[in-house]
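Fold sample X.
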Amino acid sequence: MTSSSAIAARVRAGDVRAAARLMRDLDDRLPGAEATLRELLPHTGRAVVIGLTGPPGGGKSSLVDRLIAHHRRAGQTVGVLAVDPTSPFTGGAILGDRIRMQDHALDDGVFIRSLATRGHLGGLSRSAAALVAVMDAMGRNVILVETVGVGQDEVEVASLVRTVVVVAVPGLGDDVQAIKAGVLEIADVFAVNKADREGSDRVVRDLQLMLELRRTVRSGAVTARPSQREWTPPIVQTVAVKDQGTVELAGAIERHGAHLAASGEGRLREVQRARAGFVAILRERMLAGAIARLEEELGRLDAVAARIAAREVDPYQLADELAARLRG
């Protein structure tokens, strides 16, 4: 048995230490880690993967904590991938989310991994998909992915999870500022957290109006009714710190999963996730190959950048020439 096969076998047996080390090696892009991941991929696809995104301070970590408890009471094992901002000093995750989930630290049925964005945009980390696959292969029934929560463009989570929960919260000035544009489009379930605060009812009304407008645009007629196959994201009010609304939120997530299975949309989404994952891998490989070719022919990237900054070379022409040579 090869080293990668041995590690893969330990991960599939639920060995937390082996899984944690593999995750670290995958995030650090260490040699051999990818070979182990390849052995695990045929054993993935069984976990229910749920993403939570929304504004900072919205209580995503508290909601994740309550969902962990809910699924543990149901006898399910849980994996958590909490994507934190990158520390400017260490380059690692700040670990704020893990601190808020200390109630589950000693539970063998819960595996929590904090992951730094390392400058990656979109609310996730470049290694997020690989780490979710490891948790899946080690037998976690439910995997909760919490995005970093820094803006309105955290739509990448939709390409990784089965169900996207967008967390809104009253008191942000513009009560729906964090769920505009792309984030509204990816929502499968809305959680209006901190619903005991003034203004929560207004957030619910605004969300209902936005969903109605979206349905009208899609249908092309104000009087049209949604088809039986169309999913309208439910809006669930929660107070995570008081464990209020957790059961209702979990129920909405389960109903969405049932809808995906019954409508056939689940299979379509699975193909879309595979496509997005493959394109991401391909993009990374091609970029690495392009930079290697560039440095081989013209010197290190920093030196080339210095020439561009000095207006000695045309970056567009240089990129076109390099792309043409790679295609050749």
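Fold sample Y, listed below.
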Amino acid sequence: MARPHAERPPSTRKRMFWMLLITVLVFGGVFAAWAAIQAMMNSFFDDMPQPPVAVATFDARAEQWSGRLEAVGTLVAVNGTDVTTEAGGVVQKIAFEAGQPVAAGSLLVELNSAAELATLEAMEASAKLAAVQAERWRALGTDQLVSQAEVEERGTQAATARAQAESQRALIAQKRIRAPFDGILGIRRVNLGQYVAPGDPIVSLQSLDPIYLNFTLPAQDLAHVREGLVVRAQVDSIDGREFEGTVTAIEPALDPETRNFRVQATLQNPEHLLRPGSFGRVEFEVGQEQEVVVIPQTAVAFNPYGNVVFVVVAAEEGAGGEDGGDAGAGADADADDPGLIVRQRFVTTGPTRGDMIVVTRGLEPGETVVNGGLLRLRNDAAVTINNEIQPTADENPQPANR
């Protein structure tokens, strides 16, 4: 009778196989369940309607604008300098008060010239003696008692003596410093008894009426600027005042680095309110008036790839695929109307005036654009209109000076 075979235990390889299989099935089921839950959540949020965004709007409008150029310049005195001396010396007399107006030729400072005056007296005496001797030798030459060469020599000596006296007189005049032109004096920089070397500043002198305003413009504006053009200027330190002047000079050459050209306008300044060195904002009209479409600058998103506005349209128009359209109905709709969306549109912008900007392409008058709340928008986003708080949109803003 044969003996039955004893059962062998399962091998280690089979046990490892079944353990790996069970592990893969368990973790695969967990990950599959997690992926299914994530897909369902994503689908739910993708299909969930976004609440309408409350925005402020502005209706694009047509206006008549003339060409306007604007620039920032610097006020410069017609004549302005630091009064100096040509000759050195010790200050003997100060004949002016700081800040006072003076006329051309008025004495300002006198330097000590006692030694020069004494020398001048000696030279004048020598010149007088030389003149008498020259006259005497001229008479003798007429009677042919001396030669003509001796007569001419005496005449030359007399002329030389006179020239030396005049030179000394001019040196003394240099020690009396006078105002070179009419103007307003500044703060004196010398004191009595102080030695002043040639070229040392004594006092500032500025001519304030009229006054120059120098500014630069880009090369493309060269054809619009001409001499005699009326300009208006404002200075930040003088609120509410506008000064009128005319273009009096145009630089014939352009700056090779910036491609700008310099312009000089002359402004009347009888009250001396404008001072040299101040910044001035200048503007002037060029060309004829033309109709333009304007919107606030806050309605434009300025980007490197192009400027964008969000146009408010009815939901059915947006669904129809029209990029824009008549949005007047959307602007007049009730603020709770859910049938309004925004369409992103690229536009071409032009010059600005205050808070307003010209749209040269991409927008028609009457279309409604978003003026506040752009950062929360995307293309085809639902919106509601709330114009209770509007950003400023003024062509001539007057901000408070804080």
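Sample Y note: The helical segments are 12-47, 114-142, 148-174, 315-319, 328-332.
Also: Confidence is low (pLDDT under 50) at residues 320-337.
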